[in-house]
Amino acid sequence: MAEQITQQRILEHVQRLGELYPPITLDSVDRQVHDPRAVADKYGHVVDYLARVELEVDRNVLELLVLLPDVQEVDRLFYADVWQPQEIQHGLILDRLQQDLGRPATTPELEVSMKMKIMGALAHLSSIQDIARLLYYLTGASTERQAVLAYNVINEGMRELGETAIAETIITPIKQQEPGHFAFYRMSATAMIQAGELRPWQLYLARILREKTYNLVGTNGQDRYRAQMGGVVTALGFATDLEKYAREVGRIEAQLLWADHQGMEFPPYVLKALRESVELYRDRGFDAA
Ligand SMILES: [Fe+2]
Ligand SMILES: [Fe+2]
Fold first, then answer.
1. pLDDT of 250 strictly over 80
2. Does residue 236 sit within a domain?
3. Which of 59, 61, 149, 250 has a CB 3.0–4.6 Å from the CB of 266, allowing a cystine?
4. CA gap 39, 158 in Å, rounded
5. Predicted confidence (pLDDT) at residue 179 exceeds the cutoff of 80
6. What's the gap in Å between 199 CA and the centre of ligand 1?
């Protein structure tokens, strides 16, 4: 495996993110939109989806506290000082953008699900909590990677539409903050595997749980959001090559969780989730209840 990732290195990464990227303020945004109708037609539902997902960070923090009752200091530092303050601003800024486009505000889901509470009750056993922690990092790596890919495409698209204010004062600043989040989760998951923190039975259970519970970003285990995600994937042009997208999103996980499956480029459940989402979107459209 590549170079050793120490807790010190992860801590320094988190501190650097905090210094480099203060949360983006609403006032820093240039709200000029040349053609709101054209932007809404092309990206309205994508902006809505991303605004909701970003605003759900507050629920994600509650889930984290449930899942990791004995949270480590470096994890706490990351979510409390860097991640939540940055993501909530992404959400507020994108939600204001979509209202500037003449669309209704988004409605984030802020209730912690029963499934999560049950997992949280089990996580009081330290051997289970270690599994939950690895799954938390893998989920983070996968979802942040999806955010990076989405913002890259939207940035280009806004420039092509001539919407430079949106590209330069909204999407570019947001897009700069996502790779650091991805790196945190990638490094944290890698460090756990490298240090051999999980016994074989824990890794086995982690694989089963991951296979059963894998969700694309923001789908919250619900078909209506899966259909919407299919719409986002389609609008951003990823649906033409889902395997390529699955590779981008699932590579880290294939290397860390499925290391004994030589040559696996992405776990099969990633592609399966993508296919299901795109199919649901084709059947139901974006606004399925
Ligand atoms: Fe974000
Ligand atoms: Fe992020």
1. yes
2. no
3. 250
4. 8
5. yes
6. 33
